[in-house]
Specification:
The complex is a heterodimer of chains A (427) and B (276).
Chain A lengths: L3 E13 L10 H17 L10 E13 L3 E6 L5 H8 L7 E7 L2 E4 L12 H11 L4 H15 L14 H13 L5 E5 L7 H16 L3 E5 L3 H7 L2 E6 L2 E7 H13 L4 E3 L11 E9 L8 E3 L4 E9 L7 E8 L4 E6 L13 E9 L7 E11 L4 E15 L34
Parallel strand pairs in A: 3-7, 3-8, 5-6, 6-7, 12-18
Antiparallel strand pairs in A: 1-2, 1-4, 8-9, 10-11, 11-13, 13-16, 14-15, 14-17, 17-18
Chain B lengths: L6 E4 L10 H6 L1 H16 L8 H20 L9 H28 L1 H4 L8 H27 L11 H25 L2 H15 L14 H7 L2 H14 L6 H31 L1
Helix pairs in contact in B: 2-6, 3-4, 3-6, 4-6, 4-7, 4-8, 4-10, 6-7, 7-8, 7-10, 7-11, 9-11, 10-11
The chains are: A alpha/beta (427), B mainly alpha (276).
Chain lengths: 427, 276
């Protein structure tokens, strides 16, 4: 397994449930339990094996990660992602199976593990570095770099309890980011900090990956996973549900959690609408017409709707509503096709398509709503929010609006503008 | 590059586990930093700072001198009572402080245990090591006291580090047991203060070990390792009765406690992150 960095074989991890309530067992409980256990067993033989009191946080998990691969791990809360990292980080022991690791492992399961409120920034760099597994000489060598990354030069000798939360997180991440293990395990640490900080962290993680280190990255930030990882694993109920290229896995996950996909069809009787018009079908498709919920940021996205007009004589205007994952109302698009503009429609089935141009939307998950409206007199025949969704992905080919920039780009749209530079004079 | 990477395997452990002392040695810098953190934090924002390391044994010595020395007139082997009791209070406080900190150390560092790997033995050991700093500071005061009473140490003072080590190892041995138990049973942390209090009366801190009659009683008394430690400590600094069979029993019992404690700790270690 010369090029395999991580090999997981039939890994299982069992926890006791109810551990939350009774996690501080008292000595008395234990003593009483020991005395009464045989009695209970006599009375109720089934309770001797208390399988229902345990839960498998991981079960039969097997996977391999090659050296230099950046693998994203996604899944709902409680799917076993963090447990896997804890086993790989040697924090907890597996109940069954085995893990083989090649190289030094650094884990970043939390930002600022072991930070001490009373100690100064300088002192915490040493302490935290040592806790994360750095040698003193190594910390000393990287000290200036860490301070510069964290941007806390002026507060180096102030106790961190006086830091703003932003400074605190920056410092903590800076120390962790300068750990140089062959295998880096990262758990959802980017959820903290402001946008600028997140951008910096993502950039730093991108660097780590480029240096040929192996990275396992747990996150709910799907665009970040798409951008950083070569491959992804989808976890569900302690098992690997899907493994494959990042986009295919993140799409499956988004479809599962959002509970709607790129296409939706209704029977006429139950279709949204009224006695004038009903919506029977909607789908998202690529320029070539292939239904897809994952669209390259550079290419146009088609939204196709099919509706049936049941009563003639109405001027009907279909319109589409676009929301991003944060729920921001990005824009509305109203049907401007001159063929039916201002004309009452006869009964029948209509299909219309609107194209969102490529290089317009920012990366992320976009949810689409559809309405059919009559303007004069104002009447909304139907309005369905969030009927379909798609994922816009920047594939980092450097011909999108981000150019060669690899970090986090904020903003709800990302149009590619024409830039022109004139060399005016030499100075 | 690829061939130099060490392979590690994690799988369920069964039966007796190795102590992995080599790995512990690799983490000696972390041990140092954790001990250093404990010392730093203990005296931060205290107006008197490290002076507290001296005030505590000094005040206790004054109280003991008044009650046991002046009122009860306990024999002190011909040594001025203040020096006699202070010389015992130093190893005693080293032991008591280290035991208290080590006993609760795992639970106190649960944030580390659940988030990052290192040999867990580092935690109780660093808690004990942090106590050595206090000891060093209050020891200087003892030298001052000895000079004040005109006591010149003999060559026996060279054996002193051995007794300091024995006190620290006793605290570690018991601390290993208590800290691991405390992860499972929080009763332990309520028990520790009482244990320490009772233990002090069972140790020759305020009185002389010479009060214990010879023969089997001394052997039984030696089951308390602190009896040996304090006896040896007084002898090394102040002269008087040299260590006897009591000492041998003390050393033996510490070794038994320490080895069993290490193995118990290592056995329980795998569940710490899940239970703490």
């Amino acid at each position: 397994m010369s090029d395999i960095a991580i090999k997981v074989e039939n890994l299982g991890k069992q926890y006791r449930i109810g551990a939350q309530q009774e996690r501080y067992k008292t000595l008395r409980d234990s003593l009483v339990g020991t005395v009464t256990a045989p009695l209970r067993r006599l009375r109720n033989p089934q309770s001797a094996i208390r399988n229902k009191d345990t839960i498998w946080a991981l079960k039969d998990v097997s996977c391999e990660v090659k050296q230099g691969e950046v693998v994203g791990i996604i899944g709902r809360n409680g799917a076993g992602k963090s447990t896997l990292l804890k086993v790989l980080a040697h924090i907890t022991e597996p109940t069954e199976g085995r893990v083989r690791l090649r190289g030094r492992v650094g884990s970043l399961l939390e930002v600022g593990t072991g930070f001490s409120q009373e100690l100064t920034g300088r002192e915490n760099i040493y302490l935290n570095g040592a806790i994360l597994g750095m040698k003193k000489a190594e910390i000393e060598r990287k000290f200036d770099e860490i301070v510069a990354f964290a941007e806390i030069e002026k507060f180096l000798d102030t106790p961190v309890k006086h830091y703003s939360s932003g400074m605190y997180v920056r410092l903590a991440f800076a120390v962790a980011a300068h750990l140089e293990p062959e295998i880096l395990l990262v758990d959802e640490v980017l959820a903290v900090g402001d946008a600028a900080f997140q951008k910096k962290c993502l950039g730093k993680m991108g660097d780590v990956a480029k240096e040929g280190r192996t990275v396992l990255f747990v996150s709910h930030n799907i665009p970040a996973i798409n951008r950083l990882c070569n491959r992804a694993l989808l976890f569900g109920s302690g098992q690997i549900r899907k493994s494959g290229s990042t986009l295919s896995v993140t799409n499956e996950y988004l479809n599962a959690i959002l509970n709607f996909g790129a296409e939706k069809t209704w029977d006429l009787e139950v279709a949204p609408g009224n006695d004038v018009v009903r919506l029977t079908h909607i789908r998202i498709h690529s320029l070539e017409g292939i239904t897809s919920n994952s669209i390259d940021i550079r290419s146009a996205i088609g939204v196709e709707i099919t509706f049936e007009v049941l009563k003639s004589g109405f001027i009907l205007v279909p319109n589409l509503h676009f929301f991003n994952a944060q729920g921001i109302y990005m824009f509305v698009s109203v049907d401007t096709d001159s063929e039916w503009a201002g004309k009452p429609r006869p009964t029948g089935v209509y299909k219309c398509t609107a194209f969102v141009p490529g290089n317009l939307l920012a990366e992320g998950n976009i949810q689409v709503g559809v309405a059919i409206t009559t303007f004069e007199p104002w009447h909304i025949h139907l309005y369905e929010r969030d009927v379909v969704a798609f994922q816009v992905t920047d594939t980092m080919q450097s011909d999108s609006a981000r150019g060669s920039f690899q970090g986090h780009l904020p903003g709800v749209i990302r149009p590619k503008l024409n830039w022109k530079t004139e060399y005016l004079r030499r100075t | 590059m690829q061939t130099t990477l060490a392979e590690t395997v994690y799988e369920p452990s069964r039966g007796w586990i190795s102590l992995r002392l080599r790995e512990l040695w690799d983490y000696r810098e972390l041990l140092y930093f954790l001990a250093w953190r404990d010392v730093k934090i203990r005296y931060k924002q205290a107006a008197l700072g490290v002076t507290w390391a001296v005030i505590q044994p000094l005040l206790t010595m004054v109280i003991f001198s008044v009650i046991f020395g002046q009122l009860a007139k306990l024999p002190s082997d011909g040594i001025p009572y203040p020096v006699f009791s202070y010389a015992a209070l130093l190893p005693w406080q080293l032991f008591a402080g280290a035991l208290q900190r080590a006993g609760t150390s795992l639970v106190g560092n649960s944030n580390l245990i659940t988030k990052v790997y290192f040999p867990r033995l580092v935690i109780p050991i660093s808690a004990v090591a942090a106590g050595l700093v206090d000891f060093g500071i209050s020891f200087v005061v003892l030298l001052g006291l000895m000079a004040f009473y005109g006591i010149t140490p003999t060559w026996a003072i060279l054996t002193l580090p051995l007794f300091v080590l024995l006190a620290a190892l006793t605290a570690l041995a018991v601390g290993l047991w208590l800290s691991a138990l405390n992860v499972q049973y929080r009763d332990v942390q309520h028990m520790i203060p009482f244990l320490v209090q009772a233990w002090m009366y069972a140790s020759p801190v305020a009185y002389s070990a010479g009060l214990i009659p010879g023969g089997p009683w001394r052997i039984i008394y030696g089951l308390n390792p602190l009896a040996g430690v304090i006896q040896g400590f007084r002898w090394a600094l102040l002269g008087g009765n040299p260590p006897d069979e009591l000492m041998a029993v003390s050393v033996l019992i510490v070794l038994v406690l320490l080895v069993s404690g290490l193995f118990y700790f290592r056995r329980m270690e795998k569940t710490f992150a899940d239970v703490v």
